[in-house]
Amino acid sequence: MKSAYHSLEDLLAMIDEPNGSRCVKLLADKRAEIADAPGSAYNHQAWPGGYLDHVSEVMNIAVSLFEMMDSLRPLPFSRSDALLVLFFHDVEKPWKYTTGPDGVVVHREGLKTKAEHNAFRTRLLEEYEVELTDAHRNGLKYAEGELDGYSNRRRAMGPLAAFCHMCDVASARLWFAHPAADDPWGRRAR
Fold first, then answer.
1. pTM above 0.85, yes or no
2. How far apart are CA 155 and CA 177, in angstroms?
């Protein structure tokens, strides 16, 4: 199974309405601000423009992984659900980092903690009137793992969150240096 590497615009078009148009508007409104943002300070897609590369990468992984997994056993969420969560899972990152006087990438004040990240994401979701289900909210909360929410007595991460976490881990830990300009899967989607 060989998949095409989709542009970010094509991926957003795969998100059901009304959220698809709202994501397109957010990207259009903020693109100039976020175009050169790194995907992280060091661990993955840490180059100028790496944020958009990471978002494109996780969403492309989701398209391919969804098709394969859903063919094995029907998934209890849609491809659109996964793409929506993944589009927003790191939305604070373009504003989270700045370059210090020594050239080192550092965290900005007000965006250092998970609580601050979540508050920033919530403000953007509300500003663009993105409609979330409980599964979407759980997906956003746990896309990066259960972290402090883990318990051996209850399941914190729902199925959508688990799927999005798999996509994020693949991008951030397996393909942390991709998509490269000469990537065999596709070109940078910026």
1. yes
2. 32
Query: Are the C-beta atoms of 143 and 168 separated by less than 8 Å?
Result: yes
Please give the full DSSP string across 2-22, using - where no structure is assigned: ------HHHHHTTSPTTHHHH
SS3 at position 89 = coil
Is the CB of residue 179 less than 8 Å from the CB of residue 5?
yes
Q: What does the pLDDT look like over 112-141, one tens digit per residue?
A: 888 898 999 999 999 999 999 999 999 999
User: Helix, strand, coil shares of the chain as percentages rounded to 5?
Assistant: 55, 5, 45
C-alpha 8/C-alpha 18 separation (Å) is 17
145 φ/ψ angles, rounded to the nearest 5 degrees: 110, 170
- Domain map of the chain by residue range? 8-174
- 79, 84, 122, 139 from 70: Cα distances, Å: 9, 18, 30, 18
In this predicted structure, what is the pLDDT of residue 27?
Answer: 97
Compute the distance between CA of residue 62 and CA of residue 105 in angstroms, rounded to an integer.
29
**Whether the predicted pLDDT of 12 surpasses 60:** yes
Residue 144, token pair as written in the block: 């990066």
Give the H or E element holding residue 24: helix 19-34
Nearest-CA neighbor of 11 among 100, 82, 114, 105? 82
Q: Domain 8-174: give its CATH architecture.
A: Orthogonal Bundle (1.10)
- Taking each helix axis from N to C end, the angle separating 159-169 and 50-72, rounded to the nearest 10 degrees, works out to 130
Q: Is 137 helix (H, G, I), strand (E, B) or coil?
A: helix
